[in-house]
TrEMBL record:
SUPFAM superfamilies: Nudix (SSF55811). The keyword Hydrolase applies. GO terms for biological process: nucleoside phosphate metabolic process; ribose phosphate metabolic process. One of its GO terms (cellular component) is cytosol. Residues 41-170 form the Nudix hydrolase domain. The lineage of its organism: Bacteria, Pseudomonadati, Pseudomonadota, Betaproteobacteria, Burkholderiales. It comes from Massilia psychrophila. This is GDP-mannose pyrophosphatase. Belongs to the Nudix hydrolase family. NudK subfamily.
Length: 199
């Protein structure tokens, strides 16, 4: 049996409360009994959609990301509203950002993209049976969509043109699915989320 690695919260406070993100500062007990602090970003979570056309090409976006001051290539994605069903969020975000709807949805996996400093989780969905329609971007949201093949995406990952973690992981998922090595689920179960400690 492995060593007990659990850290236990004693108390805490909200160190920063922004419109989108909150920063929590908790006092904790380490496995050896010593006390210290942990600061981390609370994030409501997001969905990531892998829109796969019948010819195995993929719908992507180019979007400017301010913290890194550059345009990134990404899959459609968006924040989960409080109490929102994850699949409903994925359907909403795909239509709002790209105009596309999908007739076939599969839940793929949950990824935690910033485990050292955030509780953010990303729920990945495969969307097939795509039908084009008008996009409905949020105020202040600017992006463009384009199509690429999975081999082209893999080359962009390999060359460093794609560095966004959700897009790298999603591309590896698509490579395995198209090759028949990984099979997505036949239904979309609600992903399990961990309970949050009060702040």
């Amino acid at each position: 049996m492995g060593m007990d690695l659990k850290e236990t919260r004693i108390d805490g406070e909200v160190a920063f409360d922004g419109r989108f993100l909150k920063v929590t500062r908790d006092r904790i007990t380490l496995p050896d009994g010593a006390e210290t602090f942990r600061e981390f970003i609370r994030h409501p979570g997001a969905v990531v959609i892998l829109p796969l056309f019948d010819d195995n090409s993929v719908l992507l976006e180019r979007q400017f990301r301010y913290p890194l001051d550059k345009v990134f290539i990404e899959y459609p994605a968006g924040k989960i509203d409080q109490g929102e069903d994850h699949l409903a969020c994925a359907k909403r975000e795909l239509q709002e950002e790209t105009g596309y709807t999908a007739s076939n949805w599969d839940f793929l996996c949950t990824i935690h993209n910033a485990i050292a400093y955030s509780d953010e989780h990303l729920e990945l969905y495969l969307a097939r049976g795509l039908t084009a329609g008008p996009a409905r971007l949020d105020d202040g949201e600017f992006l463009e969509t384009f199509r690429a093949t999975v081999p082209e995406l893999l080359e962009m990952v390999s060359s460093g043109q794609i560095t966004d973690v959700k897009t790298v992981i999603g591309t590896f998922w698509l490579e395995k699915i198209i090759a028949g090595n990984w099979a997505p689920g036949k239904t979309c179960p609600a992903p399990v989320t961990t309970a949050q400690s009060p702040s």
